[in-house]
Design brief:
Blueprint (H helix, E strand, L loop, with lengths): L1 E7 L4 H11 L5 E8 L5 H8 L4 E3 L8 H14 L4 E4 L8 H6 L4 E5 L11 H8 L3 E8 L9 E8 L6 H24 L3 E4 L2 E4 L14
Parallel strand pairs: 1-2, 1-4, 2-3, 4-5
Antiparallel strand pairs: 5-6, 6-7, 8-9
Helix pairs in contact: 1-6
The structure holds 5-O-phosphono-beta-D-ribofuranosylamine.
The site of 5-O-phosphono-beta-D-ribofuranosylamine has 13 residues, from helix 1, strand 5 and helix 6.
């Protein structure tokens, strides 16, 4: 069983999708700790409901961002975490965290990377006028929303979309591909060579690219 640590800042719907998949017996993993940099994050409430240990690490207590990350690493290691899941964690991670968990940190981003990294990926896509957007699960390296891509899901941009309606359509695919990426990792099926992530035994893997209306 794979030990997860989930880092959050907000509502935690991705956290919930991972919890649900584990509780349904579809993901052989255990969330050992949920860490938030925001006391008010609803994700903490979700962790509490499912009896998952939760820890708040506040940026204001650590003037140096490296010290903030050192504390995060300490908490993750003390809970025996093997894979770190960034799920709406609104901080840029430093090499302190990245080097403590090389190719063992995943992030989800609400666009088809490398298009529209950074904040408001959905709004950026809409304003650019793309016809297809989506979401990406990737390993975390130094650099904003960069790092080898594990799974992407494509989502159409509709004529009357707003940032909210597009975000909602993308989010429902996030909830599908994040647990899937973690499952592939847990099954030892992700092989990283340079920027490319090969999925071993891909013939039995569904949902590499989805196109739901
Ligand atoms: C998602 O859109 C995710 O792609 C982005 O932050 C949002 C988190 O949502 N990184 P939630 O907190 O999981 O509901």
């Amino acid at each position: 069983m794979l030990n997860l640590g989930v880092l959050v800042s907000g509502s935690g719907t991705n956290l919930q999708s991972i919890i649900d998949e584990i509780e349904a017996g579809k993901l052989d993993a255990s969330i050992k700790v949920v860490i938030s940099n925001k006391e008010s994050a609803f994700a903490l409430e979700r962790a509490g409901r499912h009896k998952i240990p939760k820890v708040i690490v506040k940026k204001s207590d650590y003037p140096l961002k490296e010290d903030f990350d050192r504390e995060i690493v300490r908490v993750l290691e003390s809970h025996g975490v093997e894979l770190v899941i960034l799920a709406g964690f609104m901080r840029i991670v430093t090499p302190v965290l990245i080097n403590a968990f090389p190719m063992r940190i995943m992030n989800i981003h609400p666009s088809l990377l490398p298009s529209f990294p950074g904040l408001d990926g959905q709004k950026q896509a809409l304003e650019h006028g793309v016809k297809i957007s989506g979401c990406t699960v990737h390993f975390v390296e130094e650099g904003l929303d960069s790092g080898p891509i594990i799974i992407q899901a494509a989502v159409p941009v509709l004529e009357d979309d707003t940032a909210e309606s597009l975000s909602k359509r993308i989010l429902s695919q996030e909830h599908r591909i994040y647990p899937e990426a973690i499952r592939l990792f847990a099954q030892g099926r992700l092989e990283v060579t340079g920027r490319r992530v090969r999925i071993k035994d891909a013939a039995t893997h569904s949902g590499m690219l989805v196109n739901p209306a």
